[in-house]
Design a protein that fits this description.
two-stranded antiparallel sheet; 3% strand
């Protein structure tokens, strides 16, 4: 909950966790220093000349984190398979609220560009 009693979504919680490590996730999403953030770049993607927004206008910040969590999960699972782990010991590939909260900053930084390029 925030100070106003509103429940925080996964993006807001991850933003706070990354801020503690010196990364400004909100700047990545909304933009900073006059540069557009990912939200604006996605909104304009696939836009026809007469349209204000494009085909990805409604992509939310949590959607982007889910895509990154999936890429991280696939990478983690592949490393576990390469290390010889049994099927029953392999990590799940998922995009749940908990997997977003467990997403390491390093994984976010590694996979964020791939998610934008894929969009």
């Amino acid at each position: 909950m925030n100070t106003g009693g509103k429940p925080l979504d996964a993006f807001e919680l991850v933003t706070a966790m990354y801020a503690a490590r010196g990364h400004r996730l909100r700047d990545d999403w909304l933009g900073a220093d006059g540069q557009p953030g990912l939200q604006t770049r996605l909104q304009l993607f696939g836009r026809a000349a007469e349209q204000k927004f494009g085909v990805l206008e409604k992509v939310a910040a949590t959607d982007v984190l889910q895509a990154i969590a999936l890429l991280h999960g696939v990478e983690t699972r592949a490393a576990e398979i390469a290390a010889g782990r049994k099927e029953s010991e392999l990590s799940a590939v998922r995009a749940t609220r908990q997997s977003l909260l467990d997403l390491p900053l390093e994984a976010y930084l590694k996979h964020r560009a791939a998610v934008e390029v894929s969009a």
